[in-house]
Amino acid sequence: PSLGRAMARHAGPRLPLIVKNLIPALSSAFDSQRVTATAFFAELLNSNVVNDLILLETMMDTMTGRQKDSCLLVRMLALRGLGNIASGSPEKVRKHGPTLLASMVNGMDDKDDPHNLVALEAMSSLSKLLDHLEERDIQSMLLHIAIRIRPFFDSEQPELRRSSIALFGSLSRFGGAEGEVFLEQVLNGLVTLLLHLQDPQPDVVKACKFALRMCGPSMGCEGLRDMFLNHLHQDRGLHFGEFINNVCKHLMQSYPEMLNRLISTNLFYFKSPWVDIRAAAPMFIGFLVLHVEEEHCQQVDLDQLISGEWGAGNP
């Protein structure tokens, strides 16, 4: 990366010949050569010099072509390079939007990615590209992406939790045309986002605050929207018990028919590996039951609730 940055800054006129001579290395039989060439190209794409030298399309095609590489690191670096176009040539992102978006979605769906490193790079790169993509291009893939990233909210890897939750928040800006469909995704992820306000990793907590603030307007409940905006400041502490009590009050006023689903999802977190989240889940249920109107109480099976047998599966 350092070499790529230095070359972009000081060796512009020589870059076309260097790029031409390096392209064959991307098809080398040796992983190390493909990794090195891809890393170099990925860093060059961070600079507008490739656009000035009319190299952008060529390099973008080479990065797209590496998505099927047998080496996981090459696939990861190729996505990083495509994401770097957002800072190197932001004015070109819209033109190539469908191709870039398809690459990110393919990265999230990578089947040979046991530690989800390619998926993480795809989510990080997509977050960088979102501000420059056409809204219609994003909306066509919105539901697929939202469903795909949802399982990462509970990943054991903090960076996967942070990146997926932050991306979900950014995607909510484009939920307008999907209307009820994206609202359903917000409601499906709501308990998880609220409980992870108690996440042991501060960066994950910040991502949850951001996502909830972004999702608030799409929920059709002014009280929740205002609570998320007024109480979920990035660098300010939160009295979780008081906050979740008020959230439950608004939820039971606006979505009383969701009581069963909200309780069931919380019960799943009774077995969470994080102690503060395990403690937050029964508190959440308690406040839900406290604020539900009597006519909706029949949704609650007290025997199952007391035994904690719900939520055996993933929410």
UniProtKB/TrEMBL annotation:
UniProt superkingdom: Eukaryota
Gene transcribed to yield this protein: Mroh1_0
Gene3D superfamilies: Leucine-rich Repeat Variant (1.25.10.10)
GO cellular component, as recorded: cytoplasm
Name assigned to this protein: MROH1 protein
One Pfam family hit: HEAT_MROH2B_C
Source organism of the structure: Piprites chloris
Residues annotated as domain Maestro/Maestro-like HEAT-repeats: 61-307
